[in-house]
From TrEMBL:
Protein's organism: Brevibacillus ruminantium
Domain Response regulatory: from-to ranges: 5-120
Domain Sigma-54 factor interaction: 141-366
Name of protein: Sigma-54 dependent transcriptional regulator
SUPFAM superfamilies listed in its UniProt record: CheY-like, P-loop containing nucleoside triphosphate hydrolases
Taxonomic placement: Bacteria, Bacillati, Bacillota, Bacilli, Bacillales
Length: 478
């Protein structure tokens, strides 16, 4: 069998020596570069490598730029990046740019390290079909061209890591489904998945639900009770709507996440927990921190890595898959949906996302006796939403022209609906408008990163913004 050629790029001699010894024992041909300059020189020689190990922190080069260069020169080359805990977010960015996985320095967990390397050397990876089947098992449906493919591919890799995950997304996008997916493909899958909605439980009860209580701890505590920390031990604790948690609870959460220790209400015994935290929110927690409504140190602990679920309007091709699956499961295939009705569904904005879509389908089926759901069975708001793409004399409007025209219409619609200020939640109104601005900005930047092969300097110049602004819009820390 032909030996695999491996390129190691790291300025630490101890690291390159360790990997050289290990990889040669696996019958690999190993080449070492101790700097970005040496790596570029090796690439110019034209040798093809099957695997590249790339340190993200080199004295003379940016690891992400080296990764981009390797993938551009050798698209089939698998890449693993090496990083310290302080640059985990960069490692996630690397995986979005095509890295297969990342290794965290120092390499304390040798079993995990060997597992990652063997998975690449032996080409143990999920196919797109396997990923789709796994996702479907957890209730996540999507088309082959969906942005969910990228999200779930990344989530599957991160699930293997001992790192907390924060899931962002609008209401109804399926944040709990993604949390269950993360648990189900993780090493903790055999242990409990326990979820709690931090916004649905009164503050006086939330502490008891999380930490448990002893008998007689408060009025009505006629017997002791285990809390979710205890019930989820060795598994995953899902903190839904974490942005709703009161500050008093945030303090206690922080301590438990940092130390793994907690006490039941009314108790004196210290309990230990071994939990992976997955949190979810439809709020911008950084803005909540700025407004002193959320603790920055807790956000840092929960946001080991952040995953953002795209809204349904960002993945319209998924709608037929979701609708047809729902009709099959709910009604045993007794209903089908007309193509024109599907087209209307694909062009609607879906502020309530997948949850709203399923409600609409359920209502249409409930009021219609025939086997085919037609446009007239859909709510009037959906039927009237679609309009032809605006044109000017020379053809379709440019994106810039379309945005300017729609912005005026959007402003007029909002202002015409404003009645008494008693009916307005002002902070929520402005927050939603700001979120729309952020979503559009992120979409443009992500598309630009694809077009520039991840070259942020070039993209910043094209957009006329600084790299700092680019990172801010992507919600990345410096």
């Amino acid at each position: 069998m032909m030996k695999k050629r491996v390129l190691i790029i790291d300025d630490e001699v101890e690291v390159t020596s360790f990997f050289t010894y290990f990889l040669q024992s696996q019958q690999c041909e190993v080449t070492v570069a101790h700097s970005g300059r040496e790596m570029h020189h090796l690439l110019e020689e034209g040798t093809d490598y099957q695997l590249a190990l790339i340190d993200l922190k080199l004295p003379d080069a940016n690891g992400l730029e080296l990764l981009t260069a390797v993938k551009k020169r050798m698209p089939a080359c698998e890449a693993i990046v090496m990083t310290g805990y302080s640059t985990i977010k960069s490692a996630v960015t690397a995986m979005q740019l095509g890295a297969r996985d990342y290794l965290e320095k120092p390499f304390d967990d040798l079993d995990s390290l060997e597992s990652v390397l063997f998975s690449v050397l032996e080409q143990n990876t999920s196919t797109d079909d396997e990923l789709a089947r796994t996702a479907r098992h957890f209730g996540i449906l999507y088309a082959g061209s969906s942005p969910m493919v990228t999200l779930l591919t990344l989530a599957e890799k991160l699930a293997k890591k001992a790192i907390n995950v924060l899931i962002e997304g609008e209401t109804g996008t399926g944040k709990e489904l993604l949390a269950r997916f993360l648990h189900g493909v993780s090493p903790r899958a055999a242990f409990p998945f326990v979820g709690i909605n931090c916004g649905a439980i009164p503050e006086t009860l939330l502490e008891s639900e999380l930490f448990g209580h002893e008998k007689g701890a408060f009025t009505g505590a006629v017997k002791g009770r285990k809390g979710f920390f205890e019930l989820a031990n060795n598994g995953t604790l899902f903190l839904d709507e974490i942005g709703e948690a009161p500050l008093s609870i945030q303090v206690k959460l922080l301590r438990t996440i940092e130390t793994g220790e907690y006490m039941r209400i009314g108790g004196e015994q210290t309990w230990k927990s071994n939990i992976r935290f997955v949190s979810a929110t439809n709020r911008n927690l950084e803005r909540e921190v700025d407004g002193n409504r959320f603790r920055a140190d807790l956000l840092y602990r929960l946001e080991g890595v952040k995953l953002t679920i795209p809204s349904l309007r960002e993945r319209p091709d998924d709608i037929p898959v979701i609708v047809q699956d729902y009709l099959e499961k709910k009604y045993g295939g007794a209903y089908r949906i007309d193509e024109e009705a599907l087209s209307l569904l694909k062009t609607y904005s879906w502020p309530g996302n997948v949850r709203q879509l399923l409600n609409v389908i359920n209502q249409a089926a409930a009021i219609h006796e025939g086997p085919l759901l037609l446009p007239e069975h859909l709510p009037a708001a959906i039927r009237s939403h679609t309009a032809p793409l605006p044109q000017n004399e020379s053809g379709p409007l440019s994106v810039q022209q379309f945005v300017e025209q729609e912005a005026i219409r959007f402003q007029e619609n909002i202002m015409s609906r404003i009645g008494s200020i008693d009916d307005i939640q002002f902070d929520i109104l402005l927050e939603r408008i700001r979120r729309l601005e952020t979503e559009v900005g992120r979409h443009v930047i992500r598309k630009g990163l694809g077009e520039t092969n991840g070259n942020r300097q070039l993209l910043s110049e094209k957009l006329g913004i600084s790299k700092r602004t680019l990172r801010y819009i992507l919600n990345e820390k410096d």
